[in-house]
Amino acid sequence: MKDCINILAIETSCDDTSVAILKNQKVLSNVVSSQKIHEIYGGVVPELASREHDRLIVPVMKKALKDSGLKLSEIDAVAYTRGPGLLGSLLVGTSFAKSLAFSLDIPLIEVNHMQAHILSIFIDDNPEKPNYPFIALTVSGGHTQLVLVKGVNDFIELGTTLDDAAGEAFDKSGKIMNLSYPAGPKIDKLASTGDIHKFKFPKPKVDGLNFSFSGLKTNFKNFLIKQPSGFINKNLKDLCASLQFTIIDILMDKIILAREMYSINSFVICGGVSANSFLRKKLKDLEIKENIKTFVPKINYSTDNAAMIGISGYFKFLESDFGKFSDYSVSKYNL
Ligand code: KG4
Ligand code: ZN
After folding, report:
1. With 129 labelled, which of 31, 95, 120, 294 sits at a CA distance of 20 to 30 A?
2. Strand duo 134-139 + 144-151: pairing
3. Nearest atom (ligand 1) to Cα of 113
């Protein structure tokens, strides 16, 4: 096998069109085009997302190649997100990846989006990398999961959300406060100067390592309905801070419980919500007060991006021989 493997990776599972080029574990380029079109609708419109991927995939790939300094003929394999995600969006990435691999006569490697979020921590320029085993908390717009990771290909789900994801709790509560989609980063910013104790919202009682966020959202909505007009604007920063405090506290409680249940002190926190600045601050507290070591990928690798697909593809490439790569007839879904 060659010493250096160049992987072109494609991510189109939701509303980010992204192509990255990796040389082994090093990212040469990682171009992400976040679709703005959904902002006015307060959430991702699946049909529009597919059309945007279709429009953007070629220019995004051209830019990724240019930034990497490589030519298409130097690519050794194409990795792509097979799922989970929006069907139409996945279909665009899948079709593009298959065609590209077929035309270049190189292997095609399917990647699970959630596993890719976790493996993003192994990208070269992350400051610190964990040893196995560790527990991963994946917190994104579509998922909230705790996963025991024993090896690069050994994932066991320990808990998941019973309803909304943590990112959805941010986005849907933000929508109630008239913040445009995605509201998570806006709430993060507004909360930085708000009072976390101004309003108190109840935390759900969910046994074990599962999560629930829809009750919090309903509670938040019911609380706001009862308030006089102008209340949201007047209290926006404090509302954001108090809401964010509750969401992050729910996550912290489960990290501590997972540590107790599995006696593992090493946690990787990934997915879009891991970009949250209050969460990152609370993780530092966990290290100091609870002796829990946390690893968080760099922000560009936290939200959806193709570099995380590339690193996962690279590990799969190392583990496979040519006979074991994805068949060009692989379907876009049903992982
Ligand atoms: O991983 P991701 O980019 O896409 C999915 O796979 O869903 O995560 C997107 C989610 C959105 O819900 C967004 O509001 C949330 O991550 N998010 C944040 C922050 N940045 C992104 N939530 C809270 N604070 C942030 N700074
Ligand atoms: Zn994601």
Report:
1. 31
2. antiparallel
3. 6
Residue of 140, 192, 246 to test ligand 1 pocket, by largest number of atoms within 8 Å of CB: 140
* Sign of the alpha-carbon dihedral angle for 303, 170, 253, 194: positive
The residue whose C-alpha atom lies closest to atom 20 belonging to ligand 1 is 185
Closest ligand 1 atom, residue 168 Cα: 12
pLDDT at 328: 65
The pocket around ligand 1, CB under 6 angstroms, is made up of 14, 140-142, 167, 170-171, 182-185, 188, 271-273, 275-276, 303-304
Residues with CB under 5 A from ligand 2 (ion): 140, 304
What's the pLDDT at 118? 97
**One-letter amino acid identity for 157?**
E
- Is there a contact between 119 and 95 (Cβ–Cβ < 8 Å)? no
pLDDT of residue 331: 57
**Threshold 0.85, pTM exceeds:** yes
| Model pLDDT for residues 260-294, shown as the tens digit of each residue | 999 999 999 999 999 999 999 999 999 999 999 99
The number of the ligand 1 atom at minimal distance from the alpha carbon of 305 is: 3
Question: Would the pLDDT of 334 be above 60?
Answer: no
For residue 333, CA distances in Å to 63, 133, 237 come to: 27, 28, 41
Q: Is 305 exposed, middle or buried (0-12, 13-18, 19+ CB in 10 A)?
A: buried
